[in-house]
Amino acid sequence: MNITQATTRYEAWLGRQIRLLQGDLHLKHQRMREDPFFFLRATYYRWAQVWPEACPKTCGGPVVLSVGDLHVENFGTWRDAEGRLVWGVNDFDEAGPLPYANDLVRLATSAFLAVEQLHVSPQDAGGEILRGYQDALKGGGNPFVLVDRRTALRTMVRNRLREPAKFWKKLRRLAPLRNRPPSTVLPAIRSILPDQKIRLCFGHRIAGLGSLGRERYTGLGFWQGGWLAREAKAWALSANLFAQGESGGRQHIEEILHCAVRAHDPYWKIRGAWIVRRLSPDCFRLELSNLPEERNEMKLLYSMGWETANIHLGSSHGAAIRKDLKGKPSCWLLRAAAQMRDEVLSDWRDWRG
User: Fold this and answer.
1) What angle do CA 86, 77, 282 make, to 5 degrees?
2) Mean pLDDT (the chain, rounded)
3) By three-state DSSP, how is residue 10 classified?
4) How far apart are CA 164 and CA 160, in angstroms?
5) Residue 38 pLDDT exceeds 90
6) Angle, CA of 168, 174 and 180, to the nearest 5°
7) Is the pTM of this model over 0.90?
8) Using CA atoms, how far apart are residues 74 and 12, in angstroms rounded to an integer?
9) Residue 47: CA atoms inside 13 Å, Cβ hemisphere, count?
């Protein structure tokens, strides 16, 4: 099966679960042509098909609740129940039980492909990701709460928060919906509002790549002197099930969040068919382009490896993972990520052609 066939079949599989927006899917297909890193982000369904065959030696090991679609731009910030700024993985749409190595290989592969944003060698990138992961396993993990002390990660992340007016201006410019959102959207969003009487104006926001094509409703309101925003996005079963030839199954999004070593976002919920969450300048996915020009990229990759372990430790297999890692060759992650980079590039060239 080539990439075109895989895409057609996956979208048909997905379309049997949820309503798809054809205009957004067309945009997704265009963006897949632009850049190998964009292509990787948009095609987790293909990764789930190819990885077990391309890297059979790394497909074993303890199975944990995994992010699945992990990459260097699947991290962001939010406020926890104490109002503290927290950094970590912010998208679990493809979560499910997988060998722990899947997330590490995909994260390292994404670093190899994000060459325009990250200026580190593959050896250094893979080494820092793995070092952070192993250190977190040894220490039992720890969430990244960015208020207690000054760190390189805190300095990089807070750069995005300097001009919040730009964030709200962008949301206010969203094209208004032609039709009202589905009847289930408004009560889902109101469940995470501070006041049920807040009036919301809904717009259509283009966001992400893997989930581009799913229904997404962004509501903007004004409350007690300032703007607020909430969003509902349709959830669907993980593409892992598609790759395994399954027509049904269960979602693991709430389970992986509940178990992970994490300072939780109290405004992130699943309500029926929708994932609802707060949007604000400090509750958002962090793109590499938002980082300051002067930044510690090695520290960033180390932190990404650590956060990956925070997620995996929720499955209580830390000791088994450490044992499995000791039995692997010294360059296993570099080799596996290089192999998957080549697979992604091959599919990308086919898609463009």
Assistant:
1) 105
2) 93
3) helix
4) 8
5) yes
6) 120
7) yes
8) 25
9) 29
